[in-house]
Amino acid sequence: MRLAFALLYLLAVSPAYAEQGDRMKGAALADQGRNGVPACRSCHGDKGIGDGSGAFPRLTGQLGFYLYKQLKDFAAGTRPSPVMSPIASALSDREMQDVAAYYSAVQGPFFPLPILDAKLAQRGGMISAAGIPERNVPACIACHGPAASGMQPSFPYLAGQYAPYLEYQLDQFRLNRRQNSPLNVMNDIAARMTEEDMRAVSEYLAAVRPPDLSRIGASSTGPASPYAGAPLATYQSTR
Amino acid sequence: MRRAALLLGLALGAASVANARAPDLAQGRAVALGGGAGDQQACAACHGADGAGVMPIYPRLAGQAAFYLYKQLLDFRSGERESAVMGPIARRLTPREMEDVAGFYAAARAHYSPPADADGAQLQQGGTLAASGSEERGIPPCANCHGQAGRGMPPSFPYLAGQSKDYLAGQLAAFRNGSRRNDPLDVMRRIAGQLDTSDVSALAAYFAHVYPPARIQ
C-alpha cells in the first residue's frame, strides 16, 4: 500500500511540478526572502553554493522535485528540522515550487577542497560504487545515478555535497529522525553502516565533481569539463 | 540593538577615515618579520609570514580588515584588550608601524585548510545561530555585523570565517566572562553573555569551517 502511494506520488506529482515553478519568483524569494520568510541565501549562500562549512547543504542545481519534496516534508514533519520546518511551514505550495525551480536551474562554483585522506577516500569510493555486500548496503550510485550526480526526479545528487552535511543526514536516517526517504529505504541503509563507513562515503562524495552533463555531446572539441560551473575565482571577482 | 550597531558603524567608519594614510606594505612586512624599530617579537613567529597562524590558538590575520587590526594593536597597547603576549609587543610598536603591519596582513593571502573534525549537528547549530540568531534569547545574528557567513564587514567588523576554532572559542569566552572589554558599546559582551558553552563551541566550529574571504575589498 505504501509502495503504491509512493509510486503514485512520484509519478503524479513530479511531471506536473516541473512545469509549474516560476524561477524568477523563486530567485527573488531565495535572495530576499519576504515578510516571515528569511532569504534562503542567508544560509545557503549565493546561488545555493553554501559557505564552505558544510553546515548547510549545497542546493545549486539540485533536482527540482527533490527540493520541492524536502520543503513539503519539512513542513509536514517527516523531515524535522528546528530551522527548516518553521520556514517551510510559512511557504505556500506555489512558493515551494518556485524556489525549487530556481535552485534546480542555477549553476554555481565549488569551494576548493581540503586535502583528502587517500585511504578514507578509497573506502568511501568503494561504498559509493559497490556498496558493502557483506552487510547488504547497496551502492549509492544504484539510485543516486552515475557518479552520484542525481537521478530524476527523486534521488538527489550527492557528488559535491558537503561532507559534514552528508554524514549528519546519514546519522539522522540511522536514528530514524529523518523519515522522508521513499519506503524509508535510507533508514534501512544507514542502519547497516558504521560511523566510519558514513564518514568515508561522505568525504568521498564531497570530493566528486559531477560531470557537466549539459556539455556532453554538445561539443566535439573534447571531454566535458570535470567541473560544473565557474571556478571560485570567477565567483569572487563577480560577486 | 540595530540602531546601536548603526551608530557604532558610523563612529568607527569616521575614525577609520581619519586614519587614511596608505600603509607602507614593505615596512609592514619588515615589522611582521621582526624588523620594527622597537626590536619587537616578529608577528610571523606566531601568526605566520602569510598570516595563516602557525598554531590553532593564534588567530588568522591574512585578509583581515586593516582598521580592525590596527585598532586591536592600539587596544593591546593601552590595555583595553588585555594580553600578556600582545601587550608588550604592541607597546614596542609606533602607531605608524601598527598601521603598516595592519596593512600588510590585510593584504596578505594565506592558504586555508579547515579543521579536520566536523560534526554536522554542531555545524548546523552554529550556522543557524550565526545566520539567524535567536529572537527569544535576544541573540542577534552574527551576520548582521560580521557579514554573511562571517566574511567580515570592513573596516571595523572582523571576518570570522576561516578563523581558528580555538581562538574564536577563546575570544567568545573572554567576552562572556568580561575579560575582553574592547568591544564598542559592550556589544560583544552583551551578546556573548546570552550564549551557553555549547553555543560557543558550535559557533567556533562553524566559523572555522566557513571558507574565508580571499581578499578584503
Give a verbal description of the structure.
The complex is a heterodimer of chains A (239) and B (217). Chain A is an all-alpha fold and 239 residues long. Helix content of chain A is 51%, strand content 0%. Chain A is built from twelve helices and no strands. In chain A, α9 (163-174) crosses α10. Chain A is globular. By secondary structure, chain B is mostly helical. Chain B has two domains: 10-107, Cytochrome c-like domain (Cytochrome Bc1 Complex, Chain D, domain 2, Orthogonal Bundle), CATH 1.10.760.10; 120-209, Cytochrome c-like domain (Cytochrome Bc1 Complex, Chain D, domain 2), CATH 1.10.760.10. Helix content of chain B is 51%, strand content 0%. Chain B has eleven helices and no strands. In chain B, α4 packs antiparallel against α6 (95-107), α7 (120-132) packs across α11 and α9 (165-176) packs antiparallel against α11. Chain B starts with a helix and ends in an 8-residue tail after the last helix. The chains are: A mainly alpha (239), B mainly alpha (217). The A-B interface holds A 38, 41-43, 45, 51-56, 82-83, 111-112, 114-115, 163-169, 171, 236 and B 113-114, 118-121, 123-124, 126-128, 131-132, 141, 143, 148-149, 161, 206-207, 209-211, 214-215.
